[in-house]
Design brief:
The structure holds two protein chains of two kinds.
Chain A: E1 3-7, E2 10-14, E3 19-26, E4 31-38, E5 44-50, E6 56-58, E7 64-68, E8 73-78, E9 87-95, E10 103-104, E11 108-113
Chain B: E1 5-7, E2 10-13, E3 19-24, E4 31-38, E5 42-50, E6 53-57, E7 64-68, E8 74-78, E9 87-94, E10 103-104, E11 108-112
Parallel strand pairs in B: 2-11
Antiparallel strand pairs in B: 1-3, 3-8, 4-5, 4-9, 5-6, 7-8, 9-10, 9-11
The chains are: A mainly beta, B mainly beta.
Chain lengths: 114, 113
């Protein structure tokens, strides 16, 4: 069965600093990987996804993530944090076969200080 | 706006009661997923329907059930409610199960008192 580990339940950065949110996955077959963002009192919004092809994936709001099979990682980065990036971020994995559900990590809350 | 509509947004009910949460998927989406988000369990997959048929089941309690209707909307029924059932319940939809992208609704916040 697949699983996701997000290191750090909270990450604090200053505005303008690099954002790095870590995600490691476990999957028996090549996975599809996702990052979702949840703003307070909102649903989950897809930031970006990796399915096949290029391992560096660009998403919305300046975020990107790189799929590294050798490290089973899919870390999320943004060069320069903005106050509006403060939210909870979820990494998710699903298998690329059949009827498969998304399995989510426990989430990382990003705090951005001025 | 993801295009997935969930009603109601908030629900407060007493222990032992039964509630129904409703989800209208995005136009054209055949697959509906239900997730529960709580502080102690995180985001947990409950159940998935595809074109009216149950396709996958997760950590769904026997007191909970769901269905997907011919018009593709889905309902999640929660019965004999307990305090621990208080959570945010999300519905998501996708075109089909091979499609990789699921779109989430705003959720229904259930509070059991």
């Amino acid at each position: 069965a697949q699983s996701v580990t997000q290191l750090g339940s909270h990450v604090s950065v200053s505005e303008g600093a690099l954002v790095l949110l870590r995600c490691n996955y476990s999957s028996s077959v090549p996975p599809y990987l996702f990052w979702y963002v949840q703003y307070p009192n909102q649903g989950l919004q897809l930031l970006l996804k990796y399915t096949t092809g290029a391992t560096l994936v660009k998403g919305i709001n300046g975020f990107e993530a790189e799929f590294k099979k050798s490290e089973t990682s899919f870390h999320l980065t943004k060069p320069s944090a903005h106050m509006s990036d403060a939210a909870e971020y979820f990494c998710a994995v699903r298998l690329n076969t059949g009827f498969q559900k998304l399995v989510f990590g426990t989430g990382t809350r990003l705090l951005v200080s001025p | 706006d993801s295009g997935v509509t969930q009603t109601p947004k908030h629900l407060i009910t007493a222990t032992g009661q039964r509630v129904t949460l409703r989800c209208s998927p995005r136009s054209g989406d055949l697959s509906v997923y239900w997730y529960q988000q709580s502080l102690d369990q995180g985001l947990q997959f409950l159940i998935q329907y595809y074109n009216g048929e149950e396709r996958a089941k997760g950590n769904i309690l026997e007191r909970f059930s769901a269905q997907q209707f011919p018009d593709l909307h889905s309902e999640l029924n929660l019965s004999s409610l307990e305090l621990g059932d208080s959570a945010l319940y999300f519905c998501a939809s996708s075109v089909d199960t091979r499609n990789t992208e699921a779109f989430f609704g705003q959720g229904t916040r259930l509070t059991v008192v």
